[in-house]
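ok new one. same drill as before - structure tokens go in, u give me an amino acid for every spot. 195 of them this time. try not to just spam alanines like last time pls lmao
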């Protein structure tokens, strides 16, 4: 359970040797600075950047807002030329199938991160669980394994989900089994008009 706790964050920084000098924390003569790749002209990215900078300043961390054109976002992600970046993953009804894609190595036994593992972190414990998640036939056991992987992922804090975007869709009243699904899969053969 993670809560907003600036005092605990300050203690962790102190314990790691980052001492407060004036407004910011210094260690070995260097100011603790984080570069946030802010997508210019994207209000959510600009708002998130401003809030991030404000919250980090409270614990003595300097944040540089690096203006990044939206057209360069994919290049910034794939080149890993950011400290922090906010972006949206499209929802999927198959979250257990995406553990390797987002958090793992390119393939089982590989030392190279998956193409969508933008953090470039490969956790050995998560790597042990992925093949089990991929092959477990019992859905409840598969969820248990995925939740176990999730605990390691949260400890690493590779990707921090801030919020889930609500899905909206419109359909006629007499169209059954169609609409916003988020994490639920829909069978096409179940969609149809009510007589």
């Amino acid at each position: 359970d993670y809560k907003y706790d600036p005092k605990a964050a300050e203690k962790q920084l102190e314990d790691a040797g980052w001492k407060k000098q004036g407004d910011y924390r210094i260690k070995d003569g260097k100011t603790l600075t984080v570069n946030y790749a802010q997508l210019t002209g994207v209000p959510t990215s600009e708002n998130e950047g401003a809030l991030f900078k404000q919250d980090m300043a409270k614990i003595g961390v300097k944040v540089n807002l690096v203006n990044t054109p939206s057209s360069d976002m994919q290049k910034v992600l794939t080149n890993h030329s950011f400290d922090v970046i906010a972006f949206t993953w499209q929802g999927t009804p198959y979250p257990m199938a995406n553990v390797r894609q987002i958090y793992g190595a390119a393939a089982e036994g590989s030392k190279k991160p998956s193409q969508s593992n933008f953090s470039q972190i490969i956790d050995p414990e998560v790597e042990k669980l992925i093949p089990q998640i991929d092959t477990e036939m019992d859905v409840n056991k598969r969820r248990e394994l995925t939740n176990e992987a999730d605990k390691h992922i949260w400890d690493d804090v590779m990707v921090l989900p801030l919020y889930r975007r609500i899905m909206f869709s419109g359909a006629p009243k007499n169209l059954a089994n169609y609409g916003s699904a988020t994490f639920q899969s829909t069978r096409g053969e179940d969609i149809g008009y009510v007589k």
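Strands lie at 19-21, 24-27, 30-31, 33-40, 62-69, 84-85, 175-176, 192-193. and btw The first helix runs from residue 6 to 15.
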